[in-house]
Amino acid sequence: QLQLQESGPGLVKPSETLSLTCTVSGGSISSSSYYWGWIRQPPGKGLEWIGSIYYSGSTYYNPSLKSRVTISVDTSKNQFSLKLSSVTAADTAVYYCARQRLRSCAFDYWGQGTLVTVSS
Amino acid sequence: EIVLTQSPDFQSVTPKEKVTITCRASQSIGSSLHWYQQKPDQSPKLLIKYASQSISGVPSRFSGSGSGTDFTLTINSLEAEDAAAYYCHQSSSLPWTFGQGTKVEIK
Questions:
Q1: CB B69 within 8 Å of CB B29
Q2: Which residues in A34-66 are b (16+ Cβ under 10 Å) and which e?
Q3: Helical ranges in chain A per DSSP H
Q4: Contact A72, A80 (CB under 8 A)
Q5: In angstroms, what separates the C-alpha of A2 from chain B's closest C-alpha?
Q6: CA gap B29, A29 in Å, rounded
Q7: I want to staple B39 with a disulfide (CB 3.0 to 4.6 A). Which of B4, B54, B63, B84 is the partner?
Q8: Rounded to an integer, what distance in angstroms lies between the CA atom of residue A13 and that of residue B75?
Q9: A42-101 pLDDT per residue, tens
Q10: A79 near A53, Cβ under 8 Å?
Q11: Are the beta carbons of B98 and A46 separated by less than 8 Å?
């Protein structure tokens, strides 16, 4: 059974960089059939797609965040990572990593999510 | 950017009732529309892909329909465990976007 697990600091100071890693188990991140994505959800609000990456390193970012986002993949560790720079309180959210089917682009497996709070 | 607008935002429903949630896209997206269920304090779960295609393991009371700009998620004979927020998601064009969500409460 595929599992995804987010990890990283739960508290980040304003203007600093948020860094999260998603570890994939029970399947290979190098599969040609999937993208790997990040989605966030501010407390009490809806879902926002941040960006996705293919195992080759090709990336797709939400234009609203593109200037601050970097997503990378480490196939040797079966992990992919998110960096969001210059964070503000508006970036406080639960961050999810998810597998995304290449053909449909539906997110079919999700991590449990990790709350990141931006505060001094 | 394609905007997805769901209605209603909130619905309070009696068990065994039928629930209908709509999702309207700001431009035609064909059938590239997917539905998710998010129970409290859980991550979203894929319910329906490509507007109407069922997902293995999802109860048959969940169904989807529509194409173009108007889509519907139907829950036949609501059960208590269906209390959740429901989101639509389009993958027709980047950036991929989600609807604002519909919260279903059990009376």
A1: yes
A2: bbbbbbbbeeeeebbbbbbbbbeeebbbbeebe
A3: none
A4: yes
A5: 14
A6: 29
A7: B84
A8: 43
A9: 999 999 999 999 999 999 999 999 999 999 999 999 999 999 999 999 999 999 999 999
A10: no
A11: yes
Q: Tell me: the pLDDT tens digits for A19-49? A: 999 999 999 999 999 999 999 999 999 999 9
Which residues of chain A lie closer than 8 angstroms to B98, CB-CB?
46-49
Q: How many CB pairs under 8 A join A and B?
A: 54
Interstrand relation of A79-84 and A18-25 (parallel, antiparallel or unpaired): antiparallel
Nearest by CB to residue B98, choosing from A47, A60, A101, is A47
**Chain A residues touching residue B1 (CB < 8 angstroms):** 63
Joined tokens for residue B5? 């607008």
Name every chain B residue with its beta carbon within 8 A of the beta carbon of A48.
98
CATH of domain B4-100: 2.60.40.10
Grouping H, G, I as helix, E, B as strand and the rest as coil, residue A77 is coil
| Domain assignments of chain B as residue spans, ordered by start | 4-100
